[in-house]
Specification:
Distance between the termini: 51 Å
Strand content: 15-25%
Order of helices and strands: HEEEHEEHEHHHHEHEHEEHH
Largest sheet: 6 strands, mixed
Structural class: alpha/beta
Shape: globular
CATH class of the largest domain: Alpha Beta
CATH topology of the largest domain: Rossmann fold
Number of strands: 10
Helix content: 25-40%
Number of domains: 2
CATH superfamily of the largest domain: P-loop containing nucleotide triphosphate hydrolases
CATH architecture of the largest domain: 3-Layer(aba) Sandwich
Oligomer: single chain
């Protein structure tokens, strides 16, 4: 199939609901124990979807496999934007727009907050020695655009005054904000957030939730977040997927999930 035919095949019909991510019969084991066990699920495009479930349900493992952080074990298939990405390395998935954050915030502690945001942009011209030598104006213009975007994001996330501070000196909540801002510098199409509210105070959790809602509306980014705060899930998510025992147990709105007896028995405890 030609590239044009592939593009047409992926083009949705007017009013048609499309899935940006589709997982089919995916399994991943550790020492013979299936953390993800024949799991199939779909994430609709241009929405905020929550992945919830009890501890040990396989949520973070699923995110790690989908993002390429854990290599595929040849059991199951992952489709992103119509492409089979099961065997793709992490960097290729990221270049295609599939970006993720981690349960424990990761950053470059020895770099400033601003420098942290200047690292993620894709295919930077300055990474080429030839461009740096023979096309310095191109490199400078591109860096100026990245700098403007980075400063805007720092202002949006309330970190502008910390731009020259070393990232290791930020509070836990500020590191969460920095990690999300850094992810946005990579221009995600789908942003996987692994427990973004973990370890932050309620006020900051509300702030993070509002950032997610605003970004979804303003940019069209699709969000899939692993989250235990069901109040936040109820507040901001369009779609909810419940995992239990390594599998997707139920999908729907939060109201539908609460009314699902299987979910009540497996997760919500009646």
């Amino acid at each position: 199939m030609s590239q044009t035919a592939e593009a047409l095949a992926r083009t949705p019909r007017p009013g048609e609901q499309t899935d940006i991510l589709r997982v089919e019969h995916l399994s991943h084991s550790f020492g013979g124990v299936n953390a993800v066990d024949d799991c199939s699920l779909q994430v609709p495009a241009n929405q905020i979807t929550a992945l919830i479930g009890p501890n040990g349900a396989g949520k973070s493992t699923l995110i790690n496999v989908v993002s390429g952080f854990y290599p595929a074990q040849k059991r199951g298939t992952i489709f992103f934007n119509g492409h089979n990405i099961t065997g793709w390395p992490t960097y290729r998935r990221a270049n295609a727009g599939l970006i993720r954050t981690f349960q424990i915030s990761r950053g470059y502690g020895g770099m400033t907050v601003l420098e942290n945001l200047m690292v993620p942009p894709k295919k930077q011209s300055g990474e080429s020695l030839l461009n740096a030598i023979f096309r310095p104006r191109l490199v400078a213009a591109e860096e100026a655009r990245h700098l403007e975007k980075a400063l805007q994001l720092l202002d949006t996330f309330g970190l502008y005054e910390k731009r020259d501070e070393y990232a290791r000196n930020l509070s836990g909540g500020q590191k969460r904000l920095l990690e999300m801002a850094r992810a946005l510098m990579a221009d995600p199409t789908l942003l996987l957030l692994d427990e973004p509210m973990a370890g932050v105070n309620p006020a900051l959790a509300d702030q993070l939730a509002q950032h997610i809602v605003n970004l979804a509306k303003q940019t069209g980014i699709t969000f899939l977040l692993v989250e235990h705060n069901l109040g936040i899930v109820d507040q901001i998510c369009d779609h909810v997927i419940v995992m239990a025992n390594g599998r997707a147990l139920a999908t729907g709105t939060m109201a539908e999930i609460r009314a699902n007896q299987q979910v009540v028995e497996a997760y919500l405890g009646g």
